[in-house]
């Protein structure tokens, strides 16, 4: 079964190359393509945050992992299945981040701290609703906290 | 530009038809398909929650909206762009929910409160890390709170 998708827009960012960390403070633009119009973004600034789904097009298919591996190749951290980590060498290569809405300018959406590089195709934009966040206590392993420590720095 | 994806698995649920509300309490299975193995899910139960990305295959392409509309067709709520709401008749038809991890049984992942119907193709599973949640104060319009009031009931 093949599922086909088309970009709804593209990321315009000063970050040109794949990077692991230090995404703080960055403001990037998402430029919608046809058939999308200003109507497609109507009301979006009523939300403080959005989820951006994008295609990790710079990850070559042969780099995709399907089993378990040490996150970022770091042997200090336990091997974890590709679905128990957020590494970008993943099946279907979908990136996903919650970003702060900065502004809407026509068919351009400006967001803060999107960890997608320049030119990345965008697949979807969803407004963040608190009710869609995790319900119940959140628990995560220590390695993931260590890995994330420099992500937004 | 066409982007091709393949399901990594399928949803097995008692919910057979499209539904808007009342997803609380439901436990559904995601059954991985080849080439995925038990290794693909290694360590996932160290996380309390996962994000499930799935394909809304029961939404026919001609139902997809690209502009603005009243959420759920309800005139009491202001028209909002398709990217300022989470309705399922959306470009690329990707569904996304944060779910509680119930158990991993071989290549089956059991999750609570996934709002995907039986047979839905799954595109990705990502562990929830608190650091990827919204940073800064969350704000959302009143209509979205009213809409979500019955969602998890």
Quick structural overview:
2 copies of one chain form a homodimer. Chain A has 153 residues and is mainly β.
What attributes does this structure have?
homodimer, 153 residues, mainly beta, Elongation Factor Tu (Ef-tu), domain 3, six-stranded antiparallel barrel, two-stranded antiparallel sheet, 9 strands, 5% helix
Q: What multimeric state do the chains show?
A: homodimer
How many domains in all of chain A?
A: 1
Report Rg of chain A: 16 Å
Number of strands of chain A: 9
Give helix and strand order of chain A, one letter per element, not per position.
EEEEEEEEEH
Report the mean per-residue pLDDT of chain A as an integer: 94
Distance between the termini of chain A: 40 Å
Low-confidence stretches of chain A: none
CATH class of chain A: Mainly Beta
Structural class of chain A: mainly beta
Largest sheet data of chain A: 6 strands, antiparallel, barrel
Widest β-sheet, arrangement of strands of chain A: 2-3-8-7-4-9
CATH homologous superfamily classification of chain A: YaeB-like
What CATH architecture of chain A would you give? Beta Barrel
Number of H/I helices of chain A: 1
Structural commentary:
Two copies of one chain form a homodimer. Chain A is built from one helix and nine strands; from the N terminus they run βββββββββα. Chain A has one helix at residues 142-148, and strands at residues 3-5, 9-12, 27-32, 49-55, 68-69, 80-81, 94-105, 108-112, 121-127. The model of chain A has no long low-confidence stretch (mean pLDDT 94). With 153 residues, the first copy, chain A, is mainly β. Chain A has a six-stranded antiparallel β-barrel. In chain A, strands 5-6 form a two-stranded antiparallel ribbon. Helix content of chain A is 5%, strand content 31%. Chain A has one domain (9-148): Elongation Factor Tu (Ef-tu), domain 3 (Beta Barrel), CATH 2.40.30.70. The interface between A and B is large, with 72 and 72 residues.
